[in-house]
Automatic annotation (TrEMBL):
Sequence ranges assigned to domain Histidine kinase in this UniProt record: 231-444
Primary location group: membrane
One GO MF term: phosphorelay sensor kinase activity
Enzyme Commission number, as recorded: 2.7.13.3
Stored CDD domains: HATPase, HisKA
Annotated localization: Membrane
Name of the protein in its database record: histidine kinase
Coiled-coil features, chain-numbered ranges: none
Membrane keyword on record: yes
Keyword Secreted: no
Source organism of the structure: Duganella vulcania
Assigned keywords, A-Z: Kinase, Membrane, Phosphoprotein, Transferase, Transmembrane, Transmembrane helix, Two-component regulatory system
Catalytic activity annotation: ATP + protein L-histidine = ADP + protein N-phospho-L-histidine
UniProt GO cellular component terms: plasma membrane
Amino acid sequence: MSGLRSLQVRLALSLAGVMLVAAGIAGTVSYRTAFHEVNELQDDQLRQMSALAERRHLATPLGLQDLDNHVVDVGARIMVQLLHKGAWGEVEGAEVPLPLAADLPDGLQTLEVQGQQRRLFIRTLPGGERVAVSQSTVVRDEVAHNAGKTTIVPIAVLIPVLALAMVALIRHMLAPVMRLAQELDERGDDQLAPLDDSEVPSEVLPFTAAINRLLHRVELALAQQKRFVADAAHELRTPLTAISLQAELLADLNLSEQAQPRLQSLQRGILRARHLVAQLLLLARLQGRDAANRDAVAVGFVCQSVLEDLLPLADQKQVVLTANVDMACSVCSNTMDLGAVLRNLIDNAIRYIQPGGQVDIDIEYRAAALHICVRDNGPGVPEHERELVLSPFYRGAAITGTGSGLGLAIVHNIVQRMAGSIALSASLPDASGLMVRIALPIPATDPSSLATPVLDVLHFQ
């Protein structure tokens, strides 16, 4: 059923139907024309035989006796008879005698003789004798039928050839449309440039123009959204900083025991809000920047810096951090993007894991790509939500951490810009825990040029 929705299939089927009908009509007309012409030719053959008899009579009046009572053409079953004394003679070699009436008129005629249809041509000679040249209509029809079939064979052979040529032609004509569809499928979320319709058929131009207008509207809407997010984050950062300072001043005062827990709760809320604003600003910067100005970046040193920054947060939650990083690894990126990827992955793992948990980081070259793997033994993400958590502000129903819902969205955005891939899965046999695996392309430069001569592998714990 889905195949009938294809314009290419429907066009091919429609043209094939028209072609079959046309071929059927052409074949029928060709067959009937050939059948009729062959019968006409055989009538002429009967006339010629009678004319031959007349010429022989004029040359030798008794020569007709040689033709009488004979099957002149065995293959065509043409018989010649002479009228003697008011009676037709029998034909030697014929299956049955041919009793013909003596008063038959001259000319072509079809008679039933002994239950068999025969085609006759009767001629009266100058001396008064009459000659009859006859042929079985079965033989005549067989010859005409064979001639008609020879005219149909080229049409029957030509039909599949035309069908293949038609399918190839349709594919060639629709190739620009298919290329546009493939181009749209291969585009990233932020690639909203207009489609190139220079090779598109004129019938499809209104459709591509409508798509380009839609892409332009989407681009404007996304630009407005990005500006709103960036402006809102900037506007929120200043009052949050002021509130944070006021909370620190309150913490220095001698507050009552009832006020202390409320102040701590306020400080935690302020920290979450400041973290959210920082994530929003980072996301806005990433969405507003293209993939240019990238270079080979040493992954080991960036990872070491991120781990040092996040170590206080891990100590606060009593989370064990372990890292196994090949210091020779490099990736085509920039320090800010790579740091944001590692920071958000490790920060997410620390925030959502239970106190006393463990986070493992492994970075290595494998299968012509740089592989980054961050896994924890926390509650994990259900399988049906693993694609959703890559969207901004999505937090699973069972999530109890203090995250903002932007960490994995930022990672996903950066990985896409780096032409990499990201996959989420459970890290433990009981389907708990979360393992995030990222594969990034290796830069064209030699990665060994970024390795340190002393330290080959970074072990962090």
